[in-house]
Amino acid sequence: MAATVFVALGVMVFSIKAAQAETVRVWVYHNFPPFVIDVDTQSGLSYDFARELTVRSDGQHDFVVEVLPRARLNRQMADGAEGIVFWANPVWFGDKEETKYLWSSKITSDSSVVMSRVDDPIEYTGPQSLLGMELVGIEGHRYIGVDELVQEGLMTRKDLHAESSAVQFISTGRGRVAILARSAADYFTRKLALTDMIHFASTPHSSYTRHVLVPKADFALRGYIDQVLDELNKSPIWRAV
């Protein structure tokens, strides 16, 4: 009898906590490994990180990942939808001074690489080295220094919907130069068996840190995310992940 009551109370407490949990929408527009491996099975770093944030909140938050293209993310944010963004950087969201949004501490570091065909290699020495070319980019993404040249009419830009398409464009010669996150470029050149077709410039377009973008007024949520990041950075298990 006592055991039954104890179990019932446990279920009740769990149900109350679950009912009180605040759903936090997590937007992820990096739809490629290691950030997203499989949407159906919810595998990849984005899901791992969201689960850590949920579990460590002790029933206060439920972080739910939504994978979407960057262009749609831009529209949702412009329409005032509320959510947080994983793997972001202030520069990419027009917030270099960090006044429009709140930003977590660093999750990880990455870089963007300049890709071309092996038989027509381009060495990147700065935006000016791409003058007169057409950049193959990803719709909704910003390319600092290069976008300014496009606006001035000194080069053009062709946008695609996916990183895999950009790699294929370069490999087939339909595009001459592309800029992709190194993590995406490495993955898709291997997956598509195009390693021997693609040249990576020795100088990256940019090196950067990745953070969580949080709505301006949500200081408590940003504080919680920073707390978890501090704990994870000390965890050998998370570093291995």
Main sheet properties: 10 strands, mixed
Indicate the low-confidence ranges by residue numbers.
2-9, 11-18
Mean pLDDT: 91
What class would the helix/strand composition place it in? Answer: alpha/beta
Strand content: 15-25%
Distance between the termini: 44 Å
Number of helices: 8
Q: Please estimate the helix content.
A: 25-40%
Shape: globular
Q: What sequence of helices (H) and strands (E) makes up the elements?
A: HEHEHEEEEHEHEHEEHH
What is the number of strand segments?
Answer: 10
Task: Give an overview of the whole structure.
The chain has 241 residues and is an alpha/beta fold. 35% of the residues lie in helices and 24% in strands. The chain contains 8 helices and 10 strands. It has helices at 2-20, 45-55, 70-78, 146-151, 163-171, 182-191, 219-233, 236-240, and strands at 22-28, 61-67, 84-88, 102-103, 108-117, 134-138, 156-160, 177-181, 198-200, 206-214. Strands 1, 2, 3, 4, 5, 6, 7, 8, 9 and 10 form a 10-stranded mixed beta sheet that branches. Strand 1, helix 2 (45-55) and strand 2 form a beta-alpha-beta unit. The model is unreliable at 2-9 and 11-18 (pLDDT under 50).
